[in-house]
Design goal:
The chain is an alpha+beta fold and about 325 residues long. It has two domains: about 5-110 and about 270-325, Fructose-1,6-Bisphosphatase, subunit A, domain 1 (Fructose-1,6-Bisphosphatase, Chain A, domain 1); about 125-265, D-Maltodextrin-Binding Protein, domain 2. It has helices spanning about 5-25, 30-45, 90-95, 140-155, 170-180, 190-195, 215-225, 245-250, 260-265, and strands spanning about 50-60, 70-75, 80-90, 105-110, 125-130, 160-165, 185, 205-210, 230-235, 260, 270-275, 285-290, 290-300, 305-315. The radius of gyration is 19 Å and the shape is globular. The mean pLDDT is about 90.
Length: about 325
């Protein structure tokens, strides 16, 4: 088996490029150009990476946003055969509004190891650290899940911190968490970063709950598996659903099945990388400096379970990739 460890720095450069492309347009109110530049920058960097790669899915097409094509061939073609699930910007709306918690993220594995749920509607997700691995079920109530995490972590319920997307569809979950006395962080976008944060002790976040999109579930599951945590994912049933949605989904997935991190990210050779676009719970945002940018990134991989956090300073003039984008930072 080839070494994903050796490939990891190159993969971090891809999310770094996406983060810079997106950050050039923070707060300008244009989601399309945020996605467009993140895809453009990351595609250029990815195609200079020595892999025989394929993007099996990219978050974005469902919303008609700029994205990698499904099954797009990437890389130089001269390296190991790998597949990617990419979210050039998880938190496009947050970037366009100048809000926090936006990242660029990807999952990478040998061919045939990443399973992606159809990007059609939402999926209920629960994520937490290693202490509750094998102890949770999506048949449990919110109260039972919280109690189990509290017991596993030996923390009082009122000392637990849950994180979730600030969405109307979560009103019922939010009410029940508040009744339990759990501390709650509501985020505008970006449930990949939120899921990963549950496995990092320094984040202070214990539990992710709520519904989000399918590609993000696979990316987050890859990170969580590398971090020895646990993630459960199931089709979210919403009263507002198109009546034909479950029938369509049933042609590709089991609509009543709970998927685990081991099923969405298979095998023992995986890499997750993420770079901050705007400051958040997981990573700092891009800082532009004279003729360059500083980007904070995180990389974790199997089989080692190593976590690496890095700060990269990129200078645009004279750079073989960035100079071609014509970035003008005086």
């Amino acid at each position: 088996m080839f070494s994903l460890r050796a490939l990891s720095p190159s993969l971090t450069r891809i999310t770094t490029a996406a983060a810079i492309g997106a950050a050039l347009h923070i707060g300008q109110g244009n989601k399309t150009i945020v996605d467009q530049k993140a895809v453009e920058f990351s595609r250029t960097m990815l195609n200079q990476t020595e892999v025989d790669g394929e993007v099996i899915v990219c978050e974005g097409p469902k919303d008609h946003a700029p994205a990698f094509s499904r099954r797009e061939k990437v890389g130089t073609g001269s390296g190991p055969r790998v597949e990617f699930v990419i979210d050039p910007v998880d938190g496009t709306t947050a970037v366009s509004k100048g809000q926090k918690d936006a990242i660029s993220a990807l999952a990478c594995a040998p061919v045939g190891k990443l399973q992606v749920l159809p990007d059609d509607g939402y999926y209920y997700k629960v994520a937490t650290n290693y202490a509750s691995k094998g102890k949770l079920s999506l048949d449990m109530s919110i109260e039972e899940i919280v109690q189990e995490v509290s017991t596993a972590k030996d923390k009082r319920i009122e000392n637990l911190t849950a994180i979730m997307l600030d969405r109307e569809r979560h009103e019922g979950i939010l009410k029940r968490l508040r009744n339990l006395g759990v501390r709650i962080i509501l985020i505008p976008d970006g449930d990949i970063a939120a899921a990963v944060a549950t496995c990092l002790p320094e984040s202070g976040i214990d539990l992710l709950l709520g519904a989000g999109a399918g590609p993000e579930a696979t990316i987050a599951a890859t990170a969580i598996k590398c971090l020895r945590g646990t993630m459960l994912v199931k089709v979210w049933r919403d009263k507002k659903d198109d009546p034909g949605r479950l029938k369509r989904l049933g042609e590709e997935v089991e609509v009543d099945k709970t998927y685990t991190e081991d099923e969405l990210a298979q095998g023992d050779y995986l890499v997750f990388t993420a770079s901050g676009v705007t400051k958040g719970e997981l990573l700092d945002g891009v800082t532009f400096i004279s003729n360059g940018a500083v980007v904070e990134s995180l990389c974790t991989r199997l089989p080692s379970g190593t976590i690496e956090k890095s700060r990269t300073t990129v200078y645009f003039v004279g750079h073989p990739v960035y100079e071609g984008f014509g970035i003008n930072i005086g």
